[in-house]
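Thread: quick sanity check before group meeting

JM: Hey all, I'm pulling together slides for Thursday and realized we never actually wrote out the predicted structure for the chain we discussed last week. Dropping the sequence here so it's in one place. If anyone has concerns about the input, flag it before I start.
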Amino acid sequence: MDPGGSLRQHLDDRIAFDLLPVMAILAVVLGFVDSPFLRSGLPLGDDTELHLYRLVDLDHLIRQGILYSRWQPDQVYGFGSPLFSFYAPLSAYLVEIAHVLGASFGSGMGIVFAAMPLVGGGASYFFLHRRLPRGPALLGSTAYVSSLYFLYNIMVRGSISDGLAMALFPVVLLALDRLLERPGPGRAVLASVAIAALLLSHNVSGPVVVPTLVACAGWWAGRRPIAIAWGGASVGLGLGLALFFIGPAASGVVYTRVPEWLAQPAFFFDQHWVMPRDLFVLAASATPGAMLTNLPAGLGLVQVLAALAALPALPRFSPRVRGEVIILAASAIGFAFLTTSASDLVWRAIPPLQIVSLPWRLLAVSDFAGALLIGYAADAWLPRQEPAAGAAFGVAALVVLILAVPYVYPLPGDSLPANPTLADVTAFQQRSGALGTTSNSEFLPRGLATFPTGPPFPGADQGATLDQKLDPASIPVGGSVRAVNAGQLSTRLATNSPAPFVAHFFTFRFPGWSAIVDGRPTSFDEPGPDRTMAVSLPAGQHELALSFGETSTQQFFDAVSLLSIVGLFGFALTSILRTFRMTGVPGKPLLNHEKGVGGEVRGWLGDARRPGAGVSGILVASIVVIGLKWSVFDRVDTPLVHLYDGQRPPGMAVASIHRFGDSLDLLGYTPPSGSSQPGQVVRFDLYWRTNATLSVYYSSFLHVVDASGQNVALDDNKDIADLPMPRWRTGAYARDEHAVKLPPNLPPGNYRVQVGIYDRSDHRLPIDGKSDGGSTLDLAPLTVQTS
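JM (edit): ok, ran it. Output follows.
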């Protein structure tokens, strides 16, 4: 008997059996899902610039040896921002690691984005394969990485933090599954780290999946005390590891504008429901070349029906798997329900739920649970024997991937700088109004009455030290201030003044800042409407020390996280010692097998002897979709992808090119078909394009004018195409929709339709270079008839 030969044969068998699904996952992710990153670099999503520009200050501090700072001193034009006191930092640090290793900021983001489907797809496959054959497990994994909301987060929103959270959902589920199947310190370490990473990935999407994870863990633990103990320890340890961020963020949010922001009617949860047509969209449509993707944030009708097909199959599953399906189905249905207006009473009855603010965020859990349910449904209903299994699984995968095609045509980010500078960060904040690199400037100090519009002095936003941010106007005549030492987060100043004075600094006052005068802590003066720091100093010679550090609350949570790290190392050391005792040879553990869901023997990749029916079909389907994308969807106009030739946008009926101002072009329009009637809402779609970056906010109007030149109906869009001009991309087109309600008593006849552009001061842009009377353009006439 040759133990070594048997082991080698066993490993060879495992590699042979598992190579095919791994190849399929790589084909789906690298050839299809990640194709935008591989071909055109970093996509331009709604939040891409926020995540890109906040990296600059982080990197600037790290290169000074400040590895983690709750204060970003160069943001908000140098007034500073407590960004990473409140925004989950993990995604930014992952990109920073790639940047330190040599990638540009943009490439680093692209690398992290591209890794997310690999992580999420691989973990979901290994989780499902612990209870299902390869085919259903692979189909569930494919369904997840090509699910509409997962792709929407990555491609349309460009939210690297949200995408990271969704990639980690199955990682945590897999880690908990393995831990509770056979509790032990080594698996507890992995589960704890996964939980901490999830909680540090995104403020909302990380915690929001916790109820589903806890429900699954509770079901798996059952009444086994050892499983309950290890599961609780792992969850507690993971929470403790993340508490250095979660604790201060939760307790300190009252010092920010977040409560003010959430109190604004525009951000009430009832303003952001998901419409049923989006939630259950049959097939979306991509418009490459458009200013906005206009893709719906939803789950997809076919995907929802496929997931719900797991419920009628409940009697076919083992009791353990049956419980999982019920928990996942309840999560998928419950969270989807909470995104619709039908759940209004629930939101009002549970005030803490309103912190989510945007109900559509909850689609992340529904999307994840639904994709896993597709794997269970496939195991129950699709054939298990070849060749029928290959055909059935291949068709199922083909449908799932085809429906995802519109979401892999994101807006190109070629206009973004690969390595933005601090000056670029300031320019972005001025252009977008996103102070502190958050969409609504919500982390600025509470009570800030007037937002700064630029740096208080040249260089304040480009690495200025704290002593340089002292307002020279606050120093009395004959007084002097000398920096003994200085940095961006601390300074020590020697002052000499003939009279008492208030030292005013161009830095926001925020918990964490401390002042020491002549070795004694002193309090800051009450901040004014600008919420900046000010310290009263007596006459004579004195020393003032300012620094940003940890508050007592933050120190408490830091200590908890530090103890959790000690516990983590303790578990890891215990696991290593156990392995050493089992093998007698450090670093060479025995090949570990454990009993799986049905009692069958399996290793970390699952049971290599389970049938792989359907895997080849899924692999073929992925290759087919990749070929279709390159040969058809990238080249031919189809219902799923409407191509743009650079001149005539899809859907535009009349080409009519005119230049408004210096760089805004009207490409054409689509008028209403046929005649109109009094009292009817008439719709006109205008198509615009700019050839230069615009910083002015323009509005568009559409007037219906009678023969005497009087307006009889009109419609204005405050922002052309509902998109502020500073966010427009050069070369892309925007569809500007106007709906004009005609008066009910409007006489029949022919009317002129006029369009024009004006700025916030009501100044109209000249058309085609004409400044005399050229501020309006006549479109096709409108015929009004009575029925």
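AS: nice. DSSP finds 23 helices and 18 strands in the chain. Residues 107 and 174 are 29 Å apart (CA to CA).
JM: adding both to the slides.
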